[in-house]
Amino acid sequence: MKRHLRSICMIVAFLVGGLFHKQLSPLGVWLPASVALMLSITFIGIETARLKPQRMHIWVLLAIQLIGVGFWGIVRLLGYPVLAESLFFCGIAPVAIAAPVIVNLLKGNVEFTTTALVLSQIIFGLLTPLLMPFVVQVEGFCYSELAIEVALQLGTVLGIPAIIAIIMRLVYPPCKAWTAKLRDVSLGIWIANLTIIAGVGTQRVLEMDISWLDMLPLVLGSLVVCITGFVAGYRLGGRELKRECSQCLGQKNTILTLYVASQWYVHPLAYIGPAFYVFFHNIANALQIALANRERSRNDACDSKG
Q1: Which of 74, 125, 164, 246 could form a disulfide with 233 if both were Cys (CB 3.0 to 4.6 A apart)?
Q2: pTM of the predicted model, to two decimals?
């Protein structure tokens, strides 16, 4: 029952966030601190010796670029430039900051996911400023400004939890067991974050005053990109890393691409795709956790019979 309750709570978080968006949207300023706390719990249990790039990381990074540029190119050729640019922001986004937390809940390889997370943020900061002038055709684009912004976010949201984890492991080595013991605490923090994210996203969409008919292609497009990422990652990872790669290609840091859109893209519809992507990839997370829980329940039942 407890396992199924986790997935239900993630869905309820979106409903609550959407219904009480006015009250919850101001709490968005606390999201970085909340995510940092959640990552600190996860990082404490990571074996740092296993944080090293693998060949699979190269394929994951290439796939992120291919999905973003591929969707942009295809839709642009079909004659829908605004939709193409919106989908680019969905596909090109790096691995989500909270991906290691979800992989931890799925009892997957957190070290692999964390390495992919760091590498994807670096690649995003290096390549995206080069792609942006061609994709959105803006003038006066500042490469260094975006690169610095990405570096600051990476240093703050990832660096602080990493430093805290290192200090804790040096001062009190048994704390490595806290990650497993506090798995439900991490989930609770993430559900609270989802509620706030849903409130902030709903508020932003409503402020645009755009009809649902105009938004529909962008919403459906972001759903297609999301499904493509999760499925492609699942296929790419094979038997050993299917969940990890699926999470890396499906769960994206679209908050960062929303920032990019707000700074260098002139059309308000640019927000729609990445904004709804947040909903879709978290719904996918809930489904993944539900499926993983069902698989564990079956295994437990088989073990008890055996």
Answers
A1: 246
A2: 0.75
